[in-house]
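ok new one. same drill as before - structure tokens go in, u give me an amino acid for every spot. 115 of them this time. try not to just spam alanines like last time pls lmao
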């Protein structure tokens, strides 16, 4: 028996309600996400675009569910365009969300330096 595989499978099936604070798991549940596997499939871009998931909530979810990972957005010029091709996984609104994430990270870093 491979204990490592069983442990990983168990972690995937664990309810987010058992891992996250109530505010965060409720926000994910409102978006139809109930397990770690579902969140892993949409992390990071689709998670950022969900209602009720702002930059700070995103970073908290990332820290709790993906320890050691830190999403750094790719600020490409084609993200600004409203004429993205249908094959792109990005939506025009993602540009604004990425800018908000960058601003929230910068504010958090500045607050940390002041402490």
């Amino acid at each position: 028996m491979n204990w490592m595989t069983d442990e990983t499978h168990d972690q995937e099936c664990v309810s987010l309600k058992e891992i996250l604070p109530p505010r965060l798991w409720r926000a994910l549940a409102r978006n139809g996400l109930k397990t770690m596997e579902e969140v892993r499939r949409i992390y990071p871009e689709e998670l950022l675009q969900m209602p009720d998931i702002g930059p700070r909530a995103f970073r908290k979810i990332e820290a709790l569910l993906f320890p050691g990972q830190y999403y750094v957005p790719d600020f490409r010029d084609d993200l600004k365009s409203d004429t993205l091709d249908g094959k792109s996984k990005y939506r025009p609104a993602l540009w604004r969300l990425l800018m908000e994430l960058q601003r929230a990270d910068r504010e958090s870093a500045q607050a940390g330096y002041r402490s």
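Residues 3-114 form one domain. and btw DSSP finds six helices and no strands in the chain.
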